[in-house]
Design goal:
The structure is a homodimer of 362-residue chains.
Chain A: H1 12-38, H2 46-56, H3 62-72, H4 79-103, E1 107-108, E2 111-112, H5 114-124, H6 131-155, H7 161-190, H8 196-222, H9 227-254, H10 257-260, H11 266-269, H12 275-283, H13 286-296, H14 303-316, H15 318-338, H16 344-359
Chain lengths: 362, 362
């Protein structure tokens, strides 16, 4: 794997960047092949043929990076292991596309969301029925394809049957948790306001474990790591995953649209019961809480409401509190991996990734 | 596998019935375990905990029966192979649940469809937002779970790594074809009226190949069958799959609701561009075609419109013509398997299954 420079204290960032490029190239090539295999040029397939390969290269590739770092806790540099790690990016594409349908999010990664692309195509062709409904159904199917292709890329990665059998248990667990967690998310969003405990539970199962812990455990299982390593990665992953989601939720409220690629205060507009929103309600004075409840009940959230909501959240102390929770979790995560004997490059990568996940601006 | 009596010319029906029962028990036990693993008693999960195990046992288990018959073309009776075959029933549950969302079908297998169950739960809890939208999103997720669990059951079936690696290529191909075929279906339904060629193309890719051909090839690949056997099963499966779908489409228009578990003329009410509808338009006189076009343009299709539509379809000769196409395809399918040397029980099962698929009333 000459494309990936050796990892080390100084070269870790370059190593992770090379990983991301290589994963991006792998999934793009794989999806392009699948599109060529299954779409045979009918007009109806035009949006899929363009959108699917485009979609897979726009991400941060965090999950493959964690998976490959997990692999490097017990395995050598390996193009096959990198492809197996990249399969998690296709799983992530599945989740994003279907989540956007469910949340009614119009944009993703600076482009129209998948369901919007198909709805526009339906309109441009003058087809019968609701364009929105067609777009949503087609997007669900594109999500399904990514879920199928994730499994296919894993099994065609080139890893041997023993490694694949070890990795499958984590892979399957993670995929079920993702769907069950998303169901919990839907229910939380449909409640007036869920409890902090309910929000933490969904964060753990859907976002946190799915983003950091399971990918790490998946890679380490593929490599056949010992139980103490798996346990340390599990602790690091659980803590860092929560911190990751807290940062995500802060960006969903306070993020800069020019950087996140999403509208300002997107989570507020969608009335998402995210950690920062629920924590603000927990910390609010009776008067602040009444005002928060009023904002939650609005039919449409305009720019002025977003600004007021942001100020209120800050005033409750929820923003500062969440920043503290992030710092505390990152510190404990790094302590957990210090207790086991990992290869130097893996420790270095885990340290850099902990910062990337929690200090990011998008 | 004492539960499955020996197959033979006389015992084939009993053998297939035992297969179905055993598959039903396998998937029910597997799904019950998964529900126990991933749903931990939160109130929000109540509909899933009840609906998921219930859903998996209501089907005809055609795809597992074809897969296991394919296996028996080269392998011995095997509980592991039967579990691998049963994984296709979970794949089918995934497809049915998401199709029902996309088609807006309110009932399935004599019960409310999955999205209707979750929508009713949302209403009963007095949650915020649209109950319909919540129901549809939750049902998509339940479909996703079945897709994930299908792969998990396959990999935990107990078959060895060599067999699984042989079967994966067909399994992956079939899953992609299913999603791509469903996209074609959506597009056909959104057109004023697609061509007969477009309808045949979707039937081949989505319904026909998915119901008969790929399951047979999947089982035969797991067993390591020779190329000539795979080719004969492919021919049989392609032809019989089309005949199966023609029968399905006839039932969608002319079926008895008390037997099919769906409303009378369901496909007409949903304005499905099914084979019988499109063939009727092809065979119609100009005057009949004008009347068919009028029916297709109705905002709501009531019982009188269904009755008129049925009469018109019969009058065009499309019903008789489709019956002839079914007979012809069944005959050619059985000829194809006569040309290769298959184990007696497999040939007997393929003969019985050909009738079951095309002479059924539900």
């Amino acid at each position: 794997m000459a494309v990936i420079p050796a990892a080390g204290a100084t070269g870790t960032t370059a190593w992770l960047d090379a990983l991301r490029r290589r994963c991006g190239a792998d999934v793009h090539a794989f999806v392009t092949e699948r599109v060529r295999e299954h779409f045979t040029g009918r007009a109806a397939e035009a949006p899929a043929v363009t959108a699917l390969p485009e979609f897979v290269t726009g991400g941060k590739f965090l999950r493959p990076m964690f998976a490959y770092t997990g692999w490097r806790c017990g395995g050598p540099e390996s193009a096959a292991a990198l492809r197996a790690a990249a399969s998690l990016e296709l799983l992530h594409c599945f989740a994003l596309i279907q989540d956007d349908v469910m949340d009614g999010s119009a944009r993703r990664r600076g482009h129209p969301a998948m369901h919007v692309r198909f709805a526009r195509w339906h309109e441009s062709q003058g087809l019968a029925g609701s364009a929105q409904r067609f777009g949503e159904s087609a997007a669900v199917l594109m999500g399904d394809l990514f879920l199928v292709w994730s499994g296919q890329l894993l099994h065609e990665s080139g890893l041997d049957a023993g490694a694949l059998a070890r990795g499958r248990a984590v892979y399957d667990r993670m995929r079920s948790e993702l769907a069950v967690g998303q169901l919990g998310d839907l229910v939380n969003d449909a409640r007036a306001l869920p409890s902090w405990a309910d929000v933490l539970d969904v964060i753990r199962r859907k976002s946190g474990d799915y983003t950091v812990r399971r990918p790490l455990e998946f890679g380490a299982a593929l490599a056949g790591c010992a139980d103490d390593v798996l346990a340390a990665l599990g602790t690091y992953g659980g803590l860092l995953g929560e911190a990751f989601q807290f940062r995500d939720d802060l960006l969903g409220v306070f993020g800069d649209p020019a950087v996140t690629g999403k509208p300002a205060g997107d989570d507020l507009r969608e009335r998402k019961a995210s950690s920062v929103v629920v924590l603000a309600a927990d910390l609010a004075s009776p008067r602040q809480r009444a005002e928060l409840t009023g904002l939650l009940a609005l039919d449409a959230v305009d720019a002025a409401a977003v600004a007021r909501w942001r100020d209120l959240i800050t005033a409750t102390g929820a923003r500062d509190q969440l920043e503290k929770l992030i710092d505390e979790r990152v510190r404990r995560a790094l302590e957990a991996i210090d207790l086991v004997d990992l290869p130097g490059p893996a420790t270095a990568a885990l340290t850099v990734l902990a910062r990337r996940c929690t200090e990011r601006v998008r």
